[in-house]
Specification:
- The longest helix has 37 residues.
- α9 runs antiparallel to α10, α11 runs antiparallel to α12 and α12 packs antiparallel against α13.
- The protein is of the alpha+beta class.
- The protein contains 13 helices and 13 strands.
- The structure holds S-adenosylmethionine.
- S-adenosylmethionine binds next to β5 and β10.
């Protein structure tokens, strides 16, 4: 890092301005190129474009074949993100063909109050993949604290310019031109560039190598939010692709929606978060429903949260039966609220508890649900693969125990018959 400070000093005679001066950028890049070795250029197809922060430089790494730019540190790029060098990103090859539509089952149209949106052009069955979209830009969620905002914006511009289409697809997502200018400036927040606004209002947080990234997926970015969505997102660390899955049967002509907010939030919390993080007032089906429907939904969501806490506490106290009956009630409410797909990580608790109290049938049912969370959506990542191996072991053990139990019961019945 002292080396990086030297580089900064050397280039200080080109003060950053807005737009960042070309000379400064050139100076920094020429000095950085040797300093990031042994990171060879592969899998990147252009030299990284960097800014200098206290801890480590921050760079744009681009792979033109995949039309992907990643904004992160050289360390991250050379370790957790080196997957591009040995994986081909070919989504259809890892889905069962009957699960994926070969031509998109939707079209992008104007939706009143929401800009554009995706509407089904045919009936879509629950459990089908509606769209598989590879990332265009992945940006480490945390900006380095000690760099200027303009420098980060410069990285964003470079990341988009370097895409295969020169950034046309991403720039088309801009809210500019959709609204009148005053309204737009107000929505966008002061000092925010158009590109920053476009990335912030169209990206989804994804996990990559244990870190959070903002992921921009050009086709996914056309799907609007709904607090009771009929579809949901799933990101694969292995392929860097985002998939939209149908959570329900969707009729032709119906808008396809996903949730941008965390599960279980009540109306006020959701609307505040959507305004603060995404910059819009939610016009979804639930938010525009009559007051009594909203209140009922809020009560359900509050109860879900209480139950979630109670299940864990009861289990810790050893009150397994009570914990399980609350868990069953919780999953019932989760279903009513259409939150099933966002609560997948909750299945593990009842799976363990049912095993503990000797209800093998239920233990198996929930363990299979945990497994589906990992392998139901295409190739699992490295962590997923390890967990799958463990789960397969558990499933095998439960099935064996179930078989023995049935055999014993059978014998007991026979013995009873004899006496
Ligand atoms: C990821 S984009 C979705 C596509 C966008 N409607 C478009 O025209 O490109 C997110 C933006 O869509 C709009 N939007 C999405 N869901 C909405 C909702 N439930 N109510 C109102 N506006 C919404 C907001 O302007 C938000 O910033």
């Amino acid at each position: 890092s002292s080396q990086h400070q030297d580089i900064r000093k050397t280039c200080a005679r080109y003060p950053p301005s807005r737009p960042v001066s070309a000379n400064l950028t050139k100076c920094l890049d020429s000095l950085l190129a040797p300093s990031i070795s042994p990171l060879s250029l592969a899998p990147w197809t252009q030299p990284p474009h960097c800014i200098y922060a206290e801890e480590s430089p921050y760079c744009v790494f681009t792979n033109a074949h995949h039309s992907l730019s990643i904004i992160t540190t050289p360390d991250e790029a050379s370790t957790s993100l080196n997957l591009l060098s040995h994986h081909s990103v070919d989504p259809p090859s890892f889905f069962a063909p009957q699960k994926l539509y070969l031509s998109p089952p939707y079209k992008v149209v104007d939706v009143p109050g929401k800009g554009k949106g995706a509407v089904a052009t045919q009936r879509i069955q629950k459990g089908m993949a509606i769209l598989v979209d590879t990332a265009s830009v992945l940006a480490a969620a945390e900006y380095p604290a000690d760099v200027m905002r303009e420098e980060v914006q410069d990285l964003m511009e470079a990341a988009v310019d370097r895409l295969a289409d020169g950034g046309i697809g991403v720039r088309a997502l801009s809210r500019m031109g959709r609204r009148d200018e005053e309204e737009e400036e107000e929505e966008r927040g002061e000092g925010m560039s158009e590109m920053e606004d476009t990335l912030l209002t169209n990206s989804f947080v994804v996990g990559l190598g244990g870190k959070e990234y903002m992921g921009l997926f050009v086709d996914v970015a056309r799907f609007n939010h709904d607090c009771r969505p009929n579809a949901f997102l799933h990101f694969s660390e292995t392929t860097l692709a985002m998939t939209i899955w149908a959570a329900k049967d969707i009729e032709e002509g119906e808008e396809i929606t996903i949730s941008y907010s965390a599960a279980g939030m009540v109306t006020e919390e959701r609307q505040k978060t959507l305004e603060k993080v995404w910059g819009f007032k939610c016009q979804c089906s639930l938010c525009s429903a009559p007051a009594e429907i909203l209140t009922a939904s809020d009560n359900n969501r509050k109860e879900i949260r209480q139950l979630q806490k109670a299940v864990v506490e009861l289990a810790q106290k050893g009150e397994y039966d009570e914990a399980l009956s609350r868990a069953e009630r919780m999953f019932e409410l989760v279903e009513t609220e259409g939150l099933t797909e966002q609560m997948g990580d909750m299945y593990e608790v009842p799976a363990r508890l049912y095993y503990h109290v000797g209800n093998l049938e239920k233990a198996l049912e929930y363990t299979l649900k945990v497994k589906r969370e990992i392998d139901g959506y295409g190739l699992p990542g490295e962590f997923g693969a390890e967990k799958l191996k463990m789960l397969d072991g558990v499933i095998e053990r439960i099935e064996k125990e179930l078989k023995n139990k049935k055999k014993n019961e059978e014998e007991e019945r026979k013995n009873r018959g004899r006496t």
